[in-house]
Amino acid sequence: SSLALYAWRANSIRSRVHFEIISRETALLVNNVILVVAAASVLLGTLYPLILDALELGKISVGPPYFNSVFIPLTAPLVLLLGFGIMIRWKQDTLANLLPKLILPAILSLVAGFTFVLMFTPEFNYPAVLGMVLAFWVVLSSANDLRSRLAGGRRFWSLPRSYFGMLLGHIGIAVCVVGITLVSIYSTEKDVRMQIDDVVELGGYQFQFKGVDEVEGPNYMAAQGHVQVTDDGGNLILLEPQKRVYLVQKSPMTEAAIDAGITRDLFVALGEKLDEEGAWSVRVYHKPYIRWIWLGALIMSIGGLLAAMDKRYRKLAARQVAMDKNLAGAG
Asked: What is the model's pTM?
């Protein structure tokens, strides 16, 4: 839809603005180039195996190693650039003016990133530090820019909606970076053989298998497992994964049980029955901060909608229409 809108209005898009290398326009241009390259890499990794299979040229699988090696090196400079871009002036700026604005957010980001990993993660990890430093860098540089705009006595609510949309967009990216970083580094899973009352520990949680019952659904029969999960504080969660057989299909389908939280998701999936003594194969997952990926996307979407609602854009469009009519009348 965005490409269709661009093609429809392409004739009315003209720009004769001149800008220097150190400017917000340059930062936006580099930002867009990185985003296009990242999107193309994801598209290639997704479609290339399908094209080879369709042309009967062989089968390959493209998994996490490809996307981690290609997408992450593109994401890091993109996130770093966001912090610079929000503080650079339009059209022209200088390093002498820019560097003093960067020092405080940079120092605070380094301190906050290291502190978060040391205090709130299972183990110290330098890639985790990098991700958290970048996330704090985006948030703190945005906060620093907001502080500078309000320093002259300007009221908070007098700022344009497009500015609030930009802030939300940057914060959404930071939230996504936190989710992607922590879930990719600290997520854990285990495939285990469990009998009644067997316990497996994962991510600070104890999963105790309590057996399997047969249950009947509206259009399926299922073997439903019962797994009690407790944390270090003794809080109890009951997860009930199922192995379903639908009446019209006959092939078994796995229905994982999920306990969602703001800082972690717990998954339990029931596998196959292993013997007549009640032993089952069970897979358990601990996914820290995985909800932050979707939360960040939601925040970015809200920011985009808020920016699109800025009255200045409608006034500018109305002024341009009036100018075009005046030029047409004069002609």
From this structure: 0.80
